[in-house]
C-alpha cells in the first residue's frame, strides 16, 4: 500500500496512539473468522496499512499452528516474512492414521465440530496441539515483547487474551483490538482503548481480496 493513499477517518485515529507499537496476530482466530465470512486478507496490504498507521518501525508478529509438510502453508508463511512479519509457530503432530484429516483445515474451519472422527469424537483428540495451546503461546510472546512497546495491537477477539491484555493496561500500555464481530469477546473489547471492527466498509477495501488468497 502506498503512503499517499487516503486513510479513513476511523483508521486515522489510530495514528494518535503512542509509538512504537507491536502488532500480534492470532492466526487460528483470524482464519476461523475469515472462513466464516468467506474473506481473504491481502497481507501485503495489511502490513502496509499498519506501517502507515503506526509508523515504519512497527513490529508485526504472526503466531499460528505449523504443519511443516503443508507446502501451501509454508509458501504463505514465506510471503508473510517477505513483507516484514516475524513468524512464531507451534508444530502440529498428527496422532491419527487417517490420511484425509488435515489439522489446518480442521483448525480454521468454524464448523469443524460438526464433522467428528470415525470414533464419534472431536478431531481435537487426533492432534497434540489445540487452539488453547496457540493462545497460550501468543500470550507468552506478548508478555515477552511488550516491554519495548507503548501500544499493543491485538489482531484477535479471543477471550483467552484477557489476562495478558489486562496486564499490559496495568503497565500503562495502550491497547487496540482489531477483530471481526463474529469472533470478538465483549469482555476483551471492554478492556481496550480502541476496538476496530474489520467488517466496517471503510476498512474492508484496504484488506480484502476478492479472487485470490495472496497478492
From TrEMBL:
UniProt-recorded name of the protein: NYN domain-containing protein
Record's signal peptide: none
Domain spans labelled NYN: 21-198
Pfam families (alphabetical): NYN
A single GO molecular function term of this UniProt record: RNA nuclease activity
